[in-house]
Design brief:
The chain is mostly helical and about 110 residues long. The protein is about 90% helix and about 0% strand. The longest helix has about 40 residues.
Amino acid sequence: MSAFSSYHEERRRLISNIQEEMFALLTDCNVNGLVQIYEKYSKLFGLTEFDDKLLKPVMYRIGDLWQQGQLDIATEHASTNTAIGLIRIINERITISARNTASTIAKKIASQ
């Protein structure tokens, strides 16, 4: 096995493990745990990767399990509301970060 394919296999396992952890946190309505995962993962791979590789697949899984009758409606709704809460927190952090960046740039321009 080449180093390239070994890296991709390791990354695939990491993503799968994090998806399982996120599934448990969503169904337990643990927003704080989800925020911790977001912070760690997005620093390494970015927001788009977090959304595409983690949040979306886990939410699709929750929807599929509900549709198949393997997850009750209350858990599906609670999980969805928890995901919405996570997205709100992420959006707030992005907004604050953008404001801080803009303020820093404006101060640098003003001081020149």
